[in-house]
Amino acid sequence: MKIKETIEKVPGGLMVVPLLLGATLNTIDQLHIPIVMKALKFLGAPQTEAGYYEFLRIGGFSQELFKDSALVLIALFLFCVGSQMNLKVGGLALKKGFLLTSSKYLTGLAVGIAFGIFFDPWHGILGLSSLAIIAGMTNSNSGMYAALTGQYGNRSDVGGLSILAINDGPFLTLLSLGILGTALPMIAFIAVLLPLGIGMLLGNLDPKMREFLKPGESLTIPFFAFALGAGMNLANFLNPTVLAGGLALAVLTFVLTGGAGILVFKLFKEKSYIAPIAEASTAGNAAATPAAIAAAASVAVASGAMTPAEFEAIQNIVPIATAQISISTIATTLLCPLGVILMDRYQRKRGIDGTKEYIVDTQKRTKATLEKTVNS
Prior knowledge:
Elements: H1 3-8, H2 13-31, H3 34-42, H4 60-66, H5 70-83, H6 91-118, H7 130-138, H8 142-152, H9 155-159, H10 161-164, H11 171-175, H12 186-205, H13 207-213, H14 215-219, H15 221-229, H16 235-238, H17 240-267, H18 274-278, H19 289-303, H20 308-349, H21 359-375
């Protein structure tokens, strides 16, 4: 059976499919179907606090893995992601990675701030929150970026991935939490980002550690995705408002972050714009960011830096934000390849091959300009 191959045909499949499966099972669980509860009671399953029987809450390893594991698995995922952040990158790759990361982050942050100013930052329009906007727009699908730039881009485009890895996970979103009117203490940042930092340190100190931890980047995704889904209800996805909000988030991400990337590349005299479009996506693992934010908020409320009301507000928007980001993931995974193909055709008609490095041409033009100046 080609289970993995089938899942990967779905945009962001390793994240989205397990998440939807977990949400489906949890939705059935929350219906509290009498025949299911009677069967669980007969088997000796423990009752929930509300007096029901649920197959995702039967205790033991099953509940710990499939229902309650999201945060610890996200922490392990961040540890493994950090280990792959190689600081040794080439000059041009470093430049492109920095341009793309900064333009995507600043665009997502600007939209989130503007949204918070003109609308309710918690629920806004179409159920969108500032948290969902910033988490969805500042994170990108690195795997798809690598695939698209590997086929249509050049080596420095692909090399920029080393810097782009910074926007995987909650780091940039945490930096932007001030737009919610919430001041998180430093310990909240440290508590969430420490696994990523330690992983980054180990990966750069020892290449063998980086190689050893690399499988954890993808291996943990379906497990924490299922656990995240197990805390959601399918009504979140089927709600027309949430669906419209997720699609709106996808359009904002693709058009605005892609457009900003193209503009920055143009300002810095880059000839090919394949990389900015390949980067204009929402990462599948961005769906884990709201849960990570909630984890940081729990530290803040425990230290007294956040009120219980603020913490409850964040908890309430986590399921909706997760659903909207998942929808945006699927939509942008369809938009980005189409955008890259169209841009590649547009460039080739104008004599620009995105797979070639144009730095040599730039040096020649500079030399020719200097010779002209001397001769005149």
